[in-house]
Write a structure and sequence with these properties.
Helix content: 55-70%
Order of helices and strands: HHEHHHE
Strand order of the largest sheet: 1-2
Number of strands: 2
Distance between the termini: 50 Å
CATH architecture: Orthogonal Bundle
CATH class: Mainly Alpha
Oligomer: single chain
Shape: elongated
Structural class: mainly alpha
Radius of gyration: 21 Å
Number of helices: 5
CATH superfamily: Photosystem II 12 kDa extrinsic protein
Low-confidence stretches: 52-62
CATH topology: DNA polymerase, domain 1
Amino acid sequence: MNRKEKLALILLSLTLCVGIIINYIKTKRIQETNKLVISLKDSISAKENDSSTTNNNSVKSSRNLLVNINTADAKELEVLPGIGPVIAQRIVEYREQNGYFKAKEEILRIKGIGPKKYQAIKDKITL
């Protein structure tokens, strides 16, 4: 092999390694997101099941839950206090138009979320 071929082989190897690392990182992120989604779905199911008997248990289960406002769909966002289907859809639409939220406070830009509602949800949301 001449020098150019060796260099090309090294570059291809490095590119492959970088691709593998990026794929690994993305896979880990997806796994973490899936865990959160499963947790949200379990919480929503518990909330629906408990609503016929008592609301206290479902409220307790959703208190410890963090909702990722960058990845949650509208139904998952409705777990948050004071967030109904209309505001949840506004959050999703805002995210689709503007990209991921960069700070929790950015959710105040959503029509229907003011300082009072933000105070109620700020400890229940994550990015």
